[in-house]
Amino acid sequence: MAKKHSAHEPLLLNLTDVEKPTRVGPPAIVNWVLNIVMWLLFIFWVVIIFASPSESAEKFTRNLTGATSGSIYGLTGSIFLVYSGPILAVVFLAMASLIIAGEKKLQLKKPSKYPRFRLRTFPILVDGPFGVVSAAEFIGICIFVVFLFWAVYGYTLQNLNLISELQVPSESKGYYSFFTLIHDQAFSIDLNLG
User: Fold this and answer.
1) Which helix (H) or strand (E) is 128 found in, with range?
2) Keywords of this protein's UniProt record, alphabetized (predicted)?
3) What pLDDT tens digit does each residue of the chain (194 aa) get?
4) What SS3 class is residue 104?
């Protein structure tokens, strides 16, 4: 039968009672190098994502996926590798960094005399559609909106040459007829391809 527990006995073991295994690891420089490589891979991924609407990045992606599409994963695997490969590499490097670093002791900071400005806790929008939005979240939202405008602008410039290929008759110069003509042209191109 189980031994009766009292309310005065702690539920968790005391950390001084448990022997910690000794870790033999490489010097802290390896961890530092891993952190730098992770940051460089993350910055490379952000550049790939933000540059993707430009024509040069589109050509780079097309060449890279064309070179790797002969594998068993095909085109889908190549696109996954281009856009998710750097993040997967960061994940594996972070796991290696955590293994190398071992257990870190929790460093408690003593409270500061003066309040400090922190982006993650400083509220910018208090009563909005997203609730309370901190400064860091607001910066992220602004960067995402700028990326959306950049992507729409970039893809519009890439597809601008399609408008010049459309034949617009002189009698249909109205707003509605222009979009009807674009829809009809696209539908006829789709029928010719199929």
Assistant:
1) strand 123-128
2) Membrane, Transmembrane, Transmembrane helix
3) 456 666 676 666 565 555 555 554 555 788 889 999 999 999 999 888 888 888 888 888 888 888 877 777 788 888 888 889 999 999 999 999 888 877 666 666 667 677 777 777 778 878 777 788 888 888 888 999 999 998 888 888 777 767 666 665 555 455 555 555 555 555 554 444 44
4) coil
Strand, helix or coil for residue 22: coil
Residue type, 82: V
Residue whose structure tokens are 């909106």: 145
Q: Which amino acid belongs to residue 4?
A: K
* Contacts with 168 (C-beta within 8 Å, 6 or more apart), sequence order: 178, 181
What tokens does 41 get?
Answer: 């891979």
C-alpha distances (whole Å) from 130 to each of 121, 123, 124, 138, 158 are: 15, 12, 11, 10, 34
Return the closest-CA partner of residue 43 out of 90, 108, 94: 90
Q: Which two tokens stand for residue 53?
A: 């609407």
